[in-house]
Design a protein that fits this description.
Layout lengths: L1 E5 L14 H9 L3 E9 L2 E4 L6 E3 L1 H7 L3 E5 L2 H7 L4 E2 L6 E3 L5 E3 L10 E4 L3 H5 L8 E4 L2 H8 L1
Parallel strand pairs: 1-2, 1-10, 2-5, 5-6, 8-9, 9-10
Antiparallel strand pairs: 2-3, 3-4, 7-8
């Protein structure tokens, strides 16, 4: 099972660092995949959850492509990022990724080897998982790994 760091977090949310390129690289360096928030504004790519904060380009994405899961924050980003592991959603119970995996937000759905589930909070991590997902996405990857031992 792949462990995906939510916005680069390893030991819990750090809002001031989330989606920062160096923070993402740190999570990758620690062996995790990373879910990032990307938007395209005037033809330029930006990282940032609620607003464009850190300018990036396709070279930056290509160097990390095997470890990134791109949450496209606008339709322009979806056009730009279709060739990577990417997905779009707002309040859907699930969404397809460009790799054919299903990113599930409603955990009452069937969880299997084609699904990615968000276990963002510590409370989520302590709950038993029904099924074997392809990956989990969390702000607490280290805590998740420690609890699996």
């Amino acid at each position: 099972m792949i462990i995906i760091s939510h916005r680069g977090n390893i030991n819990g949310p750090v809002p001031d660092k989330e989606n920062r390129p160096s923070y993402i690289d740190c999570a990758i360096g620690n062996g995790f995949h990373v879910e990032i928030d990307v938007r395209s504004v005037d033809g330029e790519l930006w990282l940032g959850h609620d607003e464009p904060q850190y300018k990036i380009d396709h070279n930056w994405l290509n160097k990390r492509r095997d470890y990134l899961w791109i949450h496209c924050k606008n339709v322009e980003a979806a056009h730009e990022c279709w060739a990577y592991h990417s997905f779009c959603h707002t309040s859907d119970p699930f969404t397809y990724t460009t790799t054919g995996k299903i990113w599930i937000h409603d955990l009452s759905q069937t969880i299997d080897s084609d699904t990615i589930i968000p276990l963002i909070s510590l409370e989520d991590i302590s709950k038993p998982i029904t099924g074997t997902p392809f990956a989990i996405c969390t702000d607490y990857p280290r805590h998740f790994i420690d609890n699996q031992k």
